[in-house]
Specification:
Blueprint (H helix, E strand, L loop, with lengths): L2 H4 L3 E5 L3 H12 L4 E5 L2 H7 L6 E6 L7 H9 L7 E5 L4 H9 L4 E4 L4 H32 L4 H11 L4 H8 L3 H15 L4 H8 L1
Parallel strand pairs: 1-2, 1-3, 3-4, 4-5
Helix pairs in contact: 7-9, 7-10, 8-9
């Protein structure tokens, strides 16, 4: 990921140990990302605001709210940021649980700085991909919202590869009616062919 892209990235670091927090901040700042630090999960959760390129580095074991609970709360939002957990050797089972629940990765203590940076860069790249996918899905839904239920049914069948004659048989309407619907669909979506239609909704 380029320096310009990293300058738009945000990395949240959550750890109740001030020394570790400072060390991780200095390390991650070296790649040009904006780094925000928090000494408690409660403080982080209160301040967190989603962005297109982000990740979270969190200790697994913290007072009051631990890392796994932070993960569950973020997952419940539907579009959680990639999470990298910092774990001790005795917490590997917790790390495995976190990975199964959707964590991006984990790093064992003592932290290998080079390894952590690699994982952060990968997490930020993944975050950008997720953001693009969400935008694409949002755009797709907005286009679908322009269509009537009958037009949506026809779009589904076109995407499945059915011809106008086959669609007419499936929906028990005339071929001419199908063609008329398809023309209105093309007009509403500002496209000129079935190929473009399939590209929009596959």
């Amino acid at each position: 990921m380029s320096v310009s892209k990293l300058s738009a990235a945000t990395v949240y670091i959550v750890d109740d140990d001030d020394i570790i927090l400072w060390t991780l901040k200095e390390l991650v700042q070296s790649i040009g990302a904006r780094v925000l630090t928090y000494t408690s999960a409660k403080e982080f959760l209160a301040a967190y605001s989603p962005s297109p390129c982000e990740c979270v580095i969190s200790d697994v074991r913290m007072p009051e709210i631990g890392g796994l609970q932070v993960q569950r709360l973020l997952m419940s939002t539907g579009s959680p940021p990639p999470i990298i957990f910092i774990t001790s050797h005795s917490e590997i089972s917790a790390a495995v649980e976190a990975m199964k629940a959707g964590a991006f990765d984990f790093v064992e203590k003592p932290v290998n700085g080079h390894l952590l940076i690699e994982k952060v860069q990968a997490a930020l790249a993944h975050s950008r991909t997720l953001h693009r996918e969400r935008l694409s899905e949002s755009s797709k839904q907005a286009r679908l919202d322009l269509l009537t239920p009958k037009e949506r049914s026809i779009v589904d069948l076109v995407v499945q590869g059915q011809s106008s004659r086959e669609i007419a048989g499936s929906l028990d309407i005339s071929v001419r009616t199908v063609e008329n619907h398809r023309a209105r669909i093309m007009d509403k979506l500002h496209i000129a062919s079935a190929v473009e239609l399939v590209k929009l909704f596959v």
